[in-house]
Amino acid sequence: MSKVHLLPEDVISKIAAGEVIERPASAVKELIENALDANTTSLKIHLKEAGKTLIHIKDTGSGIDKEDLENIFLRHATSKISSINDLDKIDSLGFRGEALYSIAAIADVTLKSKTPGQDSGWEIQMRSGKKISFKPAALPNGTELEIRELFFNTPARRKFLKSNTTELNQCLNVIIPYALFHYHCRFLVTHEGKTLLDLNPHATVTERMAAILNLNREDLIEKQYHAKESNIAIKAVLGNINIKRPQRDLQFIFINGRPVQNKGISFHLNQVYQLIFPKGHFPAFAVFIEMPPQDLDVNIHPTKREVKIKNEYQLTSILREMCEHALMTQGQAKQAISPQSSAISESVIQKAIKNDTEKTFETTPAPEFLEDTHAPASSEPYAYPHADAQAQIQEHLFSVEDQNLQSKLSRARFLGSFINKFLIFEFDKSLFVVDQHAAQERIAYEAFIRQMDKGKIEVQELLSPITLKLTPQEKVAFERSKDKLEELGLSSSFFDDETLAIHSYPILLKNPEPAMRHLLSGENISHCDHETIARRACRSSVMAGDFLNKEKAEYQRDQLIKCKDPFTCPHGRPTVIEMSEKFLDKQFLRT
Ligand SMILES: Nc1ncnc2c1ncn2[C@@H]1O[C@H](COP(=O)(O)OP(=O)(O)O)[C@@H](O)[C@H]1O
Ligand SMILES: [Mg+2]
Description:
Heat Shock Protein 90; formyl-coa transferase, domain 3; 23% strand; binds adenosine-5'-diphosphate
């Protein structure tokens, strides 16, 4: 008996919808793209329960003809391309004709639209992909959609949605890049009666960037470049040295008007900033790349978020050079290393990109000492140590049992401090190098957990508050975690609409700004355990670079040894390395 059969249409539509619409933010993205493709000058978005129960979006674009209103909900119905040749020269954000079909399959949709050529508008209502009603409607030129009860008929998908805070931040993550790029367009975004974004048309993209992200306009550098031979035009808005973030949350890449993720471009731009930034700090930037559509493939995935670039290597070289120059001349760079692209092998870069993008915020960068001692000289600024070599060195350095290390370090003699970053001790036939910053993070992390467990956090009150401009996402996170932050000793209030004033902070944290930003990023801290909170709070919030004299160095060493897990920092980096005589002999080929 035959076992193969075609799936019924309603099952097909739900499967297809799952590919395009994963969460409210994906629906928001598709609807914004449709409005922008229709050349809207204003976008008003209202959400309820982070879009789970309502997404209401109004545009002033071209509208949809009455005759088309039913067809747009069919699969692959689009006005944007018509033949295979068009795929090579896509100039609209949408083209697959899947969004409205998918959304209508899994939600209640009411769409009203009026074109300038029609006397009145029309309204169509869809549910589970079926037409419920079709009638005249009064509205100005443009289109208005209400999406209710997303995923009502796909309960598994609905269950998979995260908390409203997380889903709302996902929506903002989608909206903000479009609001940035379309700086002429008015954007109003509200959630349950609260305004999240209220942007009037701006004259320049830089002004818009400053307005959305609450940055100082003076801290943004503009740079443009046109590579005629490859027909690539780039505009970059780069944050200067005053905008340092503990994460990469203010970074945007656009190619031909589409916000995209591209690991290579992101890696290279962050690398360029290492010329002026200490480790663990990330810049703000927005780069706008225009290139021939045939050198680009946006049709890799239904969400069109990732793109393939034909000549990515050439593009990143141009970008590096351009940004280095801008930072060197306007960004207060300490030193510039011009890229010698030909000297760097593609595979080394690929490996480094892989390393770089695999690091999540909670995990670890490569141990600094390895980069410092083994990275080639400045002619190859982005070459990382070869993975095999790294593994070999690691094996030598960490072959010592922890306990053994603990006992040796406790008896070791302090030799001195190196560049205010490392403390050097000796014992028996070994040298011990303590990473001051990593060690301090471990000590603060464990002490912070102890204080949280006891419910007694030692707090530093501030006479004049530290002020902090928040992004819209951080504002949302702050509202949800205010009480928890207060409990942690980070007492704060809004100074004005976007500025948070910190009035007190836990003494252990020396530097409250990165602590606050880390606590406001990612999962809502009210639901996190003490370890996670402490790890996030301590990240880059203990100062590095102080000179420690003998007493202070020994005190730090003693405190470190008392820790439960003394030899890694809370983010996984080593705090101490031991270099045995044997290891050093090997380095000098004295075997
Ligand atoms: N806000 C809007 N304004 C004008 N036309 C729209 C709007 N939203 C959708 N459309 C029309 O509906 C069609 C189908 O939309 P969609 O399913 O998102 O597919 P795509 O955007 O890939 O063409 C679009 O091609 C467009 O003609
Ligand atoms: Mg579309």
